[in-house]
Amino acid sequence: MDTDFKILMVDDSEIVRTTTMDMLAKAGYPCMGVEGVHEAKAVLSKHTFDLFLLDVVMPDIDGLAFLTELMVFDNPYEVIMVTGNESLDDAAKAMELGAFGYLRKPVRHEKLLALVQKALAMVKAKKSKFDYLRDLERDIKSRTIELENSVRILETQAQRLDAIINSIGDGILAIDNENAVVLLNGQAEKILSVRFGDCAGQQLDRIQGPCSSPVLLAAINSKEVLEKNQGISISYDIVGKGVRQYNVHINEMLDKNGIVTGKLVFFSDQTEKILAEHLRNSFLTILAHELRTPVTIIMNYLSLFTSKACLLQQEEVIDDMRNASLRMKKLIDTIMSITVLSDPAASFEKSDVDICMLVEKEVRGIDAEMNETGSNIKIVNLLTDPNLRINSMLAKIIIGALLSNSVKFNRKNGDVIVRIEPGKINGLQAVTITFKDQGAGITKASQKHLFEIFAQGQDHLTRSVNGLGSGLFLAKRASKLLSGSLEMHENPEGGMSFIVTLPVCAGGAG
Fold first, then answer.
1. Is the pLDDT of residue 200 over 80?
2. Are both 457 and 382 inside the same structural domain?
3. 20 to 30 A from 290, CA-CA: which of 82, 138, 263, 312?
4. Does 91 share its domain with 15?
5. pLDDT confidence of residue 313
């Protein structure tokens, strides 16, 4: 007999309590007795019980009301109702509330023991069931936590993978065997002008825009493109970026068993490469064109040096050869400046520079160009202190390029005004130099590319001025290296003004 069970008897009759408790104790069932529900609740705050013998009618709280509070169905204990006034309604309600049994006083010894034994057997079964459910709940909770952790890990990995895919410079499009979109990274969204969320699961030929372009669809469905792994060139007009050139490569996607599940399409932006190739070819073409004239002059005159006719015009010949040599030297200096200013590892020492003297020196250095256009340079100096702590070579490149540009594109016999005055940049003391010409101005289309390398706004075969077209690019680049700025404005009365502002102490030059 299992005597580990605890029984609580709640009855307002002391005689009934004593008699019943003695009866149970002799049978090996220890029992505690209390006279009412209030006392029972006080005991329950400190102890647990497996079986309740509960009187129906008590002076403080009705036994059936207490039975309701005990919630037998949700706990591993049982309740046997005991009453002196038998009522079918009370018995039915007690059973409905979960009572295990219903006894009428006076309680017969053998009947009570038999019902107690059955109730305690049920308690044992309920405890086993509750233990199982508790273990199951604990196991489910543990597995749920593991699953949640796994989901979080997968979400984190998915976010990382998504971040990696979207950080790739190339556009990536993944499609299944039905040409339906299964992946589209951020770059591909921009290239194809469509959001992944709007086209996921849709077939390419049903998506409006670049996705359904015949060239792209033909390449995706071409066995030759796939087998030879040859890229194709496609042009797309990207919002905010203009027309871009892409090289498109297509590869098969395979599962772990080597079965083809779809295709990966890579969009590699070739615009900058094509532009660089164009600039290189343009540079070589312009350089060859610019060098041909002075070289031809020198070679032609050299072949005439032995003739008497040449000796009669020796001064003019020497002057022409000198100008041709200076032109070649200027070309070489420009090439060297491009090389130096394009080197990210280059460093530039600072020194004290008299900016007014530097301007005057550069003016004297472009006499030949001034003579060609008949330009007259006027310097307006409004500085009290002309000294700047900057790199002299960079300052010379800026002033020389802007002077040369103003003179080249000035009208015949027009004035070029160079105005030097105090200024501000980023809240710091600076010097502002304005180069104002009276030329025909620059078209809006050319203005957009004027600070790009080798840009002159004119075709190299039909242009009216010489040079590599890199002066404004060099001036802009040098200004940036000196922590300065270079701006361009159209003059109301005609011509252009280029305004460079340089800090008194160029922090970015050292």
1. yes
2. yes
3. 312
4. yes
5. 61
Write out pLDDT tens, residues 302-322: 666 655 555 556 677 677 777
CATH classification at residue 40: 3.40.50.2300
Q: Quote the CA–CA distance of 224 and 226 in Å, as a whole number.
A: 5
510 domain residue, yes or no: no
- Which sign, positive or negative, has the C-alpha torsion 288, 294, 298, 299? positive
Task: Tell me if the bond preceding 106 is cis, omega within 30° of 0.
Answer: yes
User: 442-458 burial by CB neighbour count: b if 16+ within 10 A, else e?
Assistant: beeeeeeebbebbbbbe
Strand ranges for 149-299 from DSSP E: 171-176, 181-184, 232-238, 242-254, 260-269
Are the CB atoms for 173 and 183 separated by under 8 Å?
yes
Query: Among the three residues 247, 269, 291, which one is the final residue of a domain in this structure?
Result: 269
Do 486 and 393 belong to one domain?
yes
Cα(15)–Cα(107) distance, rounded to whole angstroms?
A: 12
Residues of 275-304 as b/e, b for ≥16 C-beta within 10 angstroms? Answer: eeeeeeebbeebbeebeeebeebbeebeee
Quick: pLDDT tens for 33-49.
999 999 999 999 999 99
Q: Are 352 and 389 in contact (CB under 8 A)?
A: yes
Question: Domain check: are 106 and 119 in the same one?
Answer: yes
**Residue 510: pLDDT band with limits 50, 70, 90:** very low
Residue whose structure tokens are 């008590």: 58
How far is the CA of 458 from the CAs of 242, 375, 412, 453, 490, in angstroms? 22, 21, 18, 13, 18
- Are the CB atoms for 204 and 179 separated by under 8 Å? yes
Whether residue 354 sits in one domain with residue 308: no
Looking at the structure, do residues 258 and 290 belong to the same domain, yes or no?
Answer: no
Domain that holds residue 482: 345-503
- Give the pLDDT confidence of 138-195 residue by residue, as tens digits: 888 888 898 888 888 877 777 777 777 777 778 889 999 999 998 888 888 888 889 9
Which pair of tokens denotes residue 345? 């590892």
What's the confidence (pLDDT) of residue 59? Answer: 84
DSSP string for 104-145: ESSPPHHHHHHHHHHHHHHHHHHHHHHHHHHHHHHHHHHHHH
* Domain co-membership, 22 together with 109: yes
| 394-425 tens-digit pLDDT | 898 899 889 988 888 888 888 999 999 999 99
Of the three residues 283, 316, 340, the one that is the final residue of a domain is 340
Report if residue 146 sits inside a domain: no
Q: What mean pLDDT do residues 106-135 have?
A: 89
Token pair recorded at residue 400? 């020389």
The pLDDT assigned to 508 comes to 47
In terms of average pLDDT, the best of 82-91, 295-304, 440-449 is 82-91
C-alpha–C-alpha distance, residues 81 and 54, integer Å: 5
Kindly write down the DSSP assignment for every residue of 42-75, as one continuous string: HHHTT---SEEEEES--SSS-HHHHHHHH-GGGS
